[in-house]
Amino acid sequence: MDVALVPPLMVSTGFLPTGSLLQSLIHTCNEVCSMEKLPVLQARNISTMIRRIKLLTSLFEEIQESNGPLPPSSILCLTELFSVIRRAKFLIQDCKDGSFLWGLMQTELVSNQFYVLVKELGRALDILPLSLLKVTADVREQIELLHRQAKRVELFIDLKELERREELLVLMGSNSEKNKKNKGFIDSVKVKDILCSIGLRNTMDYEEETLKLEAEAHKQAGSGGLIVVSNINNLTSLVSYCKSIIFIDDEFEKPSKEDLKVQSTPSNRYYDHSSSSQSLIPNVPDEFRCPISLDLMKDPVIVASGHTYDRNSIAQWINSGHQTCPKSGQKLIHMALIPNYALKSLMQQWCEENNVPQVQSSPSSSSDLERSNSKRDLYEHAVDHISVVKAAVDAVKLTAEFLVGKLATGSPDIQKQAAYELRLLAKTGMDNRRIIAEAGAIPFLVTLLRSHEPRIQENAVTALLNLSIYNNNKILIMAAGAIDSIVNVLESGNTMEARENAAAAIFSLSMIDDCKVTIGKRPRAIPALVGLLKEGTPAGKKDAAIALFNLAVYNANKVSVVFAGAVPLLIELLMDDKAGITDDALAVLALLLGCSEGLEEIGKSRILVPILIDLLRFGSPKGKENSITLLLGLCKDGGEEVARRLLMNPRSIPSLQGLAADGSLKARRKADALLRLLNRCCFQSQNQIG
C-alpha cells in the first residue's frame, strides 16, 4: 500500500479541455463518494476525505452548469485538484482492498498519506479565484470553509489502531507464564478480538487476508526489500496459525474420555502431595503412565509408531542412539514428537479431580531433539517489531503440530480439513515444508492416501507434493512407504486432480537418483503415468510427461516407458495444440532414442518426420534442439529410407540450413551433422544411378 508511488499529474492549462476536465472531476468524485463497504482501519481519515470530496463535487457541478469561460488560474487549480482527488481515490481503494493487517502495521504511513493529500488540496485551493466563478453563495462559503480547514489540518493517527497493533505485537512475542502453561499458544481469544476489530470475522475473511498478504509480498518483492517481505510473510504465518486455532478447533471433535480411558480400580486415597516421587501416587490409570519410566506423564507425546511416551523419557531414549519404539520394537521412520493434547487434557482433568499436583516438565539441556520440539522455547523474547522472524517460525511450528495432532486423532471430516490446511501451509516457503515434516505430518498424510473420501485423498497427495519440494522431505516420504500409495492414487484416484498431483509428486520425488530406481521398479508406476498421458487434462498430461522424462533419465527405465506404450501417445501429443506439451513430449522421445527398443518404436511412425520438419521451422529453441536430435538419430539408424523422406520434403533442407546458421550451439552442431549425412546419402544415390 504505497499511494505515494502514484505520480501527480503534470500541471498544464492544456491538460484537458475545460469540459472534459470538469467531467473527469465530477466522475472521479462520484466514484469516491459511492464507495461501499469501507474498511474499519483509517475510518476517520477516509470519512473526512470523502466528505471534503463531496463538497468539491458541488463546486464542480455548478461550474459545469454555468457553462461560461473560466479564468486560467481556475483551470490550473482544477487540474491540480483532479490529481489530488485521483490519488485520494487510489489510497482509499488500497485501504479497502488491501491487507488489513499490513494496513494496521503501516498506520502512521497511511495516515500521513491522507494528511499530505489534504495539504495539497489546500494548496490547490490557494489559487482558486472563487470571486470570478459563477457559483452560489452556499457553495462559495462551503469551499472557503474547506480551504481554511485544509490549511490548518493536523496529522491524525487513530490511537485505537496503534493500541491494537501493539497488543498484537506483544501477543506475538509474549513469553508470559500463562502462555507457557497453555503449551506456548498465543491467547487465541485476545487475538480473535483484535483481528475481529480490524474486519477479520470469519474463515473467509482469514483466507482473503492470506491472499492479500501474499499479493502484497509479491508486490513488495521488487521494491520493498527483504525485510519488508519478511515482515509480510510473518503476518501471513500468524493469520494461518490463528485461523487454525480459532476456527478449525471449533469444528474439530475432541475425543471423549471413553476413547482413551481403560479399566482401573477406583480409589479416593492418595499419598501426600508434597512427596517428591510420582511413583508414590497409587492407582494412576495405566494410560497416564509413561511406558518407559512408569510415572505419571508430564508432557505426553506420540512417536512415529503411534505410541505415547513422556517427552523427556522418549527424548533420552532416542538421543542414546535408539531408532525403534520401546514398546513395539518397530523402527521409527521419523523422530518427530507430536504433542498428545487430547491425553494431556484428560490427565489434567484427572489430576484436578483427585488433587494430584501437576508438575511441568523441564526440557533437557543436553537434548537437541528436545529443544527442537519443545514449545517452551517459543516466544522467549518480546517482539520489537514484526521484522523478528522467530514469531513467524514459531507460529508455523504451532500450526503444524496442532494440525498433525488432528490428523492423528480426528474424524474423517477433521482429517480432511487438517490435510487441507497443511496443503496450504506447505505451498510456500522451504521453512514451512521443513517444519511440517518435523512435526510428523508425512506418515499420517501417507495413510490418508488410502482414504475413499475424495477430498481427503486429494488434500493428502497435494500436501505431500508440496512437502516434497524440500529435498530432505523426499527421503522421508520415500521412507514412509509412500510410493505405492501415490501410484495407487495416480492409477485410480478418486478425482482427476488427485491423479495429476500424484504424477507431479512422482516427478518431484524422482529428482533424486535413488528414487528414480525405486519408482521404476514399481511395475504399475510407469504404466500409470502413461495412462494419465492419455486420459488427463492438459495440465495432467504435462505432469505425466515430465515425470516420465525424469524417470527415463535412468537407462533401465527407458525400456519400461517404451513397453508401456508411451511412444505413440507422445507422437500424437506433438500434433495436439490444446495439450500444449510439445516440448515435453519431444524431450521424452529424444531420451527414448537412447535404447534400441525406443529407437525401433519411434522409427515405426510414418507421421513423425513431417512433424519434426515443421517443428524445425516453428518450434521453440528447445523444441528445435530435440527435433534435430530425433531426426539425426532416425537417419543414423534408418539410413537411406529416413534420409530419402527428408530429401523429398521441400521444407527440410531450408529448415536445417536456417537452424545451422541461427540455432543454439547444440542445434547448429547437430544440424551440420545431419546436412553432411544427407549430402552423403544424396551423393551415394547419384553414384548408384550413374
From TrEMBL:
Which reaction(s) does its UniProt entry say it catalyses?
S-ubiquitinyl-[E2 ubiquitin-conjugating enzyme]-L-cysteine + [acceptor protein]-L-lysine = [E2 ubiquitin-conjugating enzyme]-L-cysteine + N(6)-ubiquitinyl-[acceptor protein]-L-lysine
- Gene name for this UniProt entry: LOC103332811
Q: In which pathway does it act?
A: Protein modification; protein ubiquitination
| Domain U-box, first and last residues per copy | 283-357
Concerning SUPFAM superfamilies, the annotation shows: ARM repeat, RING/U-box
Gene3D superfamilies per record: Leucine-rich Repeat Variant (1.25.10.10), Zinc/RING finger domain, C3HC4 (zinc finger) (3.30.40.10)
Please name the InterPro entries in this protein's record: ARM-like, ARM-type_fold, ARM_PUB, Armadillo, PUB12-19-like_N, RING-Ubox_PUB, Ubox_domain, Znf_RING/FYVE/PHD
Q: What is this protein called?
A: RING-type E3 ubiquitin transferase
Might you give the EC number(s) for this enzyme? 2.3.2.27
On the tree of life, the source organism's domain of life is: Eukaryota
Uppermost EC category: transferase
Database matches in CDD domains: RING-Ubox_PUB
**What keywords were assigned to this record?**
Repeat, Transferase, Ubl conjugation pathway
Species: Prunus mume (Japanese apricot)
